[in-house]
Specification:
The chain is an alpha/beta fold and 371 residues long. Helices cover 31% and strands 14% of the residues. It has helices at residues 40-49, 79-93, 134-153, 168-173, 188-191, 193-205, 228-240, 277-286, 300-308, 319-323, 327-332, 348-352, and strands spanning 9-11, 14-16, 20-22, 54-61, 98-103, 116-117, 130-131, 159-163, 212-217, 245-249, 291-294, 314-317. The strands form three sheets. An eight-stranded parallel beta barrel has the order 3-4-5-8-9-10-11-12, surrounded by seven helices. Strands 1-2 form a two-stranded antiparallel sheet. A two-stranded parallel ribbon has the order 6-7.
């Protein structure tokens, strides 16, 4: 039987060559001004040449004050358009497609000086973050919209709103972080408001058929957090607004290593459920736009099972493609061994310290090839 993994897929106006997605990955290759380091274009070209159908960029801050960490990309200035245009064109020449992930770190910024969220909480900096004022919240959708418009001008194939993992939009969605008593806190309708405002502002800033995606938590995996029911409801609201697809992830930085967005859990067998499989079944049944599923997908047989069983429309991987950027080509060529990734998270160390992105378990140096 032919593998459904390598069938083309229509994502809005975008024709993808197959069903494999590189999930957003912070490569740690942003210069101090947020523009891309020279090591980033060859890394992206290598991924595109390695056969993945769609690349989602690193989380890219829409404002300098929304940076999660050092070495992060930003899309807060016009200079980004010219800097990215040739990089995007090269991905296209290598046969790939690339979507820009737009983000704001909120209260989980690693620098305490800029950390600000829906309510005060102890964030990734170790300090208690500041509460955003209503005037500051009002500026967030416009910042996402301006960055999305720049992304479209740079030639990106779409944008993805990062609404998961305990960053700003996810903080508003989550009762763990959001204790506001105004129109942005309390009931689900209030906690989802910022996400919908961002979505509407971005829609108004780009062409009518420019694909807008969102990555959301299927649940927070933390007591009292955003639940799978709320995730399905949020996905329904996004679908009604014409989003091109939803990528389902899960967890918060405080969820612990086995339940965080980057679980140190290696799925052992092809038939074992992947991290958010049960949630994806439920959420996909409730919405009429494509679902992308990320987390723990390591076997081609798992990916095929997820597609054949209707759990999702596209399968997304992050860490396996750090270790093996050519994994899609390997599987397509018939070498169906499991991805070599062991889910150890060693890849964070170089990416967070300005050494680029590579697998420390493999001792592989950062990529240098062009297509
Ligand atoms: C080094 C590294 C960087 C990441 N950067 C991002 C990011 O920028 N945006 C994002 O949404 N998720 C990011 N993630 C999470 C992944 O996209 C993905 O959701 C998670 O790793 C689970 O998928 P996997 O099991 O295929 O690795 C990152 C993960 C790793 C390991």
């Amino acid at each position: 039987m032919a593998s459904p993994l390598f069938e083309p897929f229509q994502l809005g106006k975008l024709t993808l060559r197959n069903r494999l997605v590189r999930s957003a990955t912070h490569e740690g290759l942003g210069l101090p001004d947020g523009l891309p380091d020279a090591k980033l274009p060859p890394l992206l070209a290598r991924l595109a040449s390695g056969g993945v159908g769609l690349i989602i960029s690193a989380h890219t801050a829409v404002l300098a004050s929304g940076k999660a960490s050092d070495y992060q990309l930003t899309f807060d200035q016009e200079a980004c358009v010219e800097a990215w245009r040739p990089i995007v064109a090269n991905v296209h020449e290598c046969g790939g497609k690339i979507i820009l992930q737009l983000a704001h770190a909120g209260g989980n910024a690693r620098h305490a000086a800029i950390a600000a969220g829906p309510s005060p909480f102890t964030g990734a900096s170790g300090a208690v973050c500041r509460e955003l004022t209503l005037a500051e919240i009002a500026g967030i959708p416009a910042a996402f919209a301006a960055a999305a418009a720049r992304a479209e001008r740079a030639g990106f194939d779409g944008v993805q709103l990062h609404a998961g993992h305990g960053y700003l939009i996810s903080e508003f969605l989550s009762p763990v972080y959001n204790h506001r008593g105004d129109a942005y806190g309390g009931a689900f309708e209030n906690r989802v408001r910022l996400l919908l405002e961002v979505c509407d502002a971005v829609r108004g800033a780009v062409g009518p058929d420019f694909p807008i995606l969102a990555k959301i938590n299927s649940e927070d995996f933390f007591a009292g957090g955003f639940s799978v029911e709320e995730s399905a409801a949020a996905a329904g609201l996004l679908a009604a607004r014409g989003l091109a697809a939803i990528e389902l992830s899960g967890g918060l930085p405080v969820s612990g290593p086995k339940l965080s967005p980057v679980r140190t859990v290696d799925v052992a067998l092809p038939d074992d459920p992947v991290y958010y499989e049960a949630a994806a079944r439920r959420i996909r049944a409730a919405i009429d736009i494509p679902v992308i599923l990320v987390g723990g997908i390591r076997f081609p047989a798992t990916a095929e099972r997820l597609l054949r069983d209707g759990v999702c429309d596209l399968v997304s991987m992050c860490r396996p493609l750090i270790r093996e950027p050519e994994l899609p080509a390997r599987w397509a060529a018939g070498d169906r061994r499991k991805a070599d990734c062991i889910s150890c998270n060693g890849c964070f160390r170089p990416a967070m310290t300005g050494r680029g992105l590579y697998c420390t378990a493999d001792k592989r140096e950062d990529a240098t090839s062009k297509c």
